C-alpha cells in the first residue's frame, strides 16, 4: 500500500470537533467533550485545559500558552502559533527518550488508530477558526501512528529475516560436514544493511550538480550549483551567502578560499572548514532539520563527496569534507535541540532611525529607555519562569542598533555574574538583505559588522542584495511573526510617526501583540497589552530621572 493510502486510512479514523455543548442544564450532566459518539461509533478524547467548574480534567495536549482572549481569527492565529512550538518541543523530548506527557498522550491515541478504533478529538475552539487540535495535534497523531506502523513492519521483517537466516544456516550445516562460514557472515551483513536502510534515507553525493536539493545545498560552492541549476543540472533551490568573521561571502567556498592561505594545511585547515560550515548551518537551520529527517550524523556518514578526486573528497568519514560537515552539524544540532526544549520569551526592537533624533536630548532619552526596557523584560521573563529571553534587532541605524547594544550589555552582565543566569539572554540580528549598509558612512558600516560578530544568531530575511525599501518592510513582518508567545512583546522607541516603525506597530496590533512604546519627545511610555506580560505600572518608567544611570550602563559594549 502506498504511503498516501496509508495516511488516508489513518485520517479516516480521526477527526476534530470544535465548540461542542458542555452541560445539560436540566440534569447538570456534562456531555459533548467526553464519552462516546454513538452516531459515529467513536471515542471522544478531550484535548483542552482543566475546567474544574465543568468537571473536565485537563489533557496533556492542553497548554496555558493556548489561551484566547476572544474568538477573533487574529487571536486564534496567535494562539495556535504559540501552541505549535511548545507542542513540537514536547514531541522532540519524547523522541529523545525524555519524559513528556504530550508525547505519551499522542502515542496512546496513535495506538487506537492502529487498532482501527475511531477517535474524535474535542476542544472549546469556536467552529471555523484556527484550532490547536485540528491544525497541530491531529496531524501529529496520524504521523505518529504511521511511524509506529512502519516500526512494526520493520520489526516483523527483521524477525522474519533472522528466522530465515537461521534456517539457511541450519540447512547448510546439514548439507555439508562443516558450516560454510562466509555464507552466514554474508547473511548477517545483508541483515545489517537492511536494518540501516530502514532507518536512514538513501545516501547521496554532496556536490554542486547533485539533483538532490540538499546535496547541492550542503556543498561549499553553492554559487556554482546555482549556475548548474539555471541549466537544469542541479537541485539547489536557494542562495546560501555566509556571514563569517565580520563579512558576508557569496558562499562558504569564497570564505574558505579567502582564509585558507593564512592557515597551515592539516588540522588547522580542517578546523577552518568546520567553523565555516558551522556558521552556514547556524544561519540556515532548515539544512539541519533536513539532515535530521534523513537520519542525522549517521546519514551523513553514509554519503560521499566526489567531484574530481581532490583532497576533500571521499566516501563517508574518509572524506575530510564530510568529516568536517558531520562535526559542524552535530554542534549546531545539539544547540538547536537545546533551544527547542526551552521556553523562550521574545522581545523585538523597533523604532525611528537616527536621523529623526534631531534633538540630542531625545537620543539620550531613547538609549536610557531601551536600557530600562531590557531590564524590565528580563525581570518579567525571570518571574514567569522562562529558560531564555531572545532580543531581536532589525539592525538599522538608530533604535534597532541601540536596542541591540542594550541587550548585549545585559548579556555581558549575565556572563559576568551580575545578573541571574536564567533566563539566558540571547540576541538575534534580523537582517533584511545583503548590503543594507551600502549607503552608510564607513564608521557606521564598521560598527554594523562588529555588531553582527557579537550577536548569538543571525537571520537573513532576504538572501538577495538590497533592491528597494520593500525588503525593510518584509524584515519588519518577519520580526512581528516571531512574537508568537503569549508573553512576547514589541519594544518601540518612536519620534513622530516614522513610516517603517508605524508599519511594524500596526502589524503587531492587528495580530494582538503586546506593544511597549516610548516617546522621547514627551518622555512618556504607553503600553498596549496583547498578552499577559505584567509590566509594572508605567509610572515605574515615567518616574525614572533622566540623569539616573541604568543598570545596563555599568557594562559598556564598545562598537
From TrEMBL:
Biased composition of type Basic and acidic residues is found at 151-160
Gene3D superfamilies to which the protein is assigned, alphabetical: 3.40.50.450
Q: Quick one: where's region Disordered?
A: 151-171
Please give the SUPFAM superfamilies that the UniProt record associates with this protein.
MCP/YpsA-like
Q: Which domain of life is it from?
A: Bacteria
Q: What is this protein called?
A: DUF1273 family protein
- Organism name: Iningainema tapete BLCC-T55
Q: What is the lineage of its organism?
A: Bacteria, Bacillati, Cyanobacteriota, Cyanophyceae, Nostocales
Amino acid at each position: 500500500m502506498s504511503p498516501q493510502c496509508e495516511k488516508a486510512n489513518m485520517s479516516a479514523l480521526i477527526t476534530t470537533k470544535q465548540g461542542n455543548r458542555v452541560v445539560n442544564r436540566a440534569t447538570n450532566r456534562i456531555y459533548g467533550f467526553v464519552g462516546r459518539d454513538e452516531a459515529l461509533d467513536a471515542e471522544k478524547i478531550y484535548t483542552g485545559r482543566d475546567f474544574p467548574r465543568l468537571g473536565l480534567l485537563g489533557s496533556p495536549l492542553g497548554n496555558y500558552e493556548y489561551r484566547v482572549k476572544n474568538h477573533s481569527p487574529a487571536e486564534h492565529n496567535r494562539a495556535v502559533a504559540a501552541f505549535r512550538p511548545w507542542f513540537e518541543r514536547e514531541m522532540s523530548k519524547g523522541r529523545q527518550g525524555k519524559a513528556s506527557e504530550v508525547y505519551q498522550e499522542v502515542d496512546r491515541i496513535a495506538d487506537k488508530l492502529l487498532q482501527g478504533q475511531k477517535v474524535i478529538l474535542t476542544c472549546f475552539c469556536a467552529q471555523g477558526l484556527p484550532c490547536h487540535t485540528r491544525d497541530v495535534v491531529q496531524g501529529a497523531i496520524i504521523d505518529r501512528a504511521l511511524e509506529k506502523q512502519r516500526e512494526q513492519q520493520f520489526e516483523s521483517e527483521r524477525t522474519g529475516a533472522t528466522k530465515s537466516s537461521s534456517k539457511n544456516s541450519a540447512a547448510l550445516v546439514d548439507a555439508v560436514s562443516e558450516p560454510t562460514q562466509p555464507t552466514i557472515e554474508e547473511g548477517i551483513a545483508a541483515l545489517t544493511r537492511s536494518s540501516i536502510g530502514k532507518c536512514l534515507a538513501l545516501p547521496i553525493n554532496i556536490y554542486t550538480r547533485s539533483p538532490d536539493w540538499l546535496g547541492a545545498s550542503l556543498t561549499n560552492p553553492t554559487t556554482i550549483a546555482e549556475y548548474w541549476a539555471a541549466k537544469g543540472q542541479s537541485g539547489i533551490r536557494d542562495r546560501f551567502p555566509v556571514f563569517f568573521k565580520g563579512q558576508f561571502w557569496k558562499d562558504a567556498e569564497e570564505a574558505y578560499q579567502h582564509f585558507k592561505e593564512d592557515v597551515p594545511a592539516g588540522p588547522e585547515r580542517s578546523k577552518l572548514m568546520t567553523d565555516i560550515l558551522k556558521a552556514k548551518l547556524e544561519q540556515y537551520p532548515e539544512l539541519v532539520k533536513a539532515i535530521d529527517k534523513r537520519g542525522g550524523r549517521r546519514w551523513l556518514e553514509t554519503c560521499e563527496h566526489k567531484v574530481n578526486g581532490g583532497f576533500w573528497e571521499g566516501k563517508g568519514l574518509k572524506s575530510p569534507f564530510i568529516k568536517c560537515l558531520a562535526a559542524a552539524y552535530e554542534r549546531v544540532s545539539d544547540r538547536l535541540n537545546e533551544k527547542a526544549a526551552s521556553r523562550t520569551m521574545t522581545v523585538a526592537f523597533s523604532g525611528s532611525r537616527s536621523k529623526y533624533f534631531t534633538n540630542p536630548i531625545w537620543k539620550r532619552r531613547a538609549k536610557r529607555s531601551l536600557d530600562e526596557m531590557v531590564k524590565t523584560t528580563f525581570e518579567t521573563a525571570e518571574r514567569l519562569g522562562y529558560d531564555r529571553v531572545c532580543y531581536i534587532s532589525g539592525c538599522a541605524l538608530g533604535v534597532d542598533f541601540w536596542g541591540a547594544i542594550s541587550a548585549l550589555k545585559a548579556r555581558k552582565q549575565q556572563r559576568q555574574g551580575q545578573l541571574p543566569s536564567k533566563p539566558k539572554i540571547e540576541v538575534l540580528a534580523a537582517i533584511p538583505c545583503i548590503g543594507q549598509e551600502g549607503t552608510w558612512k564607513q564608521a557606521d558600516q564598521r560598527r554594523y559588522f562588529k555588531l553582527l560578530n557579537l550577536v548569538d544568531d543571525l537571520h537573513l530575511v532576504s538572501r538577495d542584495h538590497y533592491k528597494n525599501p520593500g525588503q525593510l518592510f518584509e524584515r519588519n513582518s518577519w520580526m512581528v511573526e516571531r512574537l508568537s508567545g503569549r508573553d512576547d512583546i514589541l519594544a518601540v522607541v518612536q519620534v513622530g510617526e516614522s513610516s517603517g516603525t508605524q508599519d511594524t506597530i500596526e502589524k503587531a496590533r492587528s495580530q494582538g501583540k503586546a506593544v511597549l512604546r516610548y516617546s522621547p519627545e514627551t518622555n512618556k511610555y504607553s503600553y498596549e497589552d496583547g498578552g499577559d506580560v505584567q509590566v509594572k505600572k508605567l509610572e515605574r518608567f515615567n518616574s525614572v530621572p533622566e540623569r539616573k544611570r541604568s543598570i545596563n550602563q555599568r557594562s559598556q559594549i564598545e562598537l
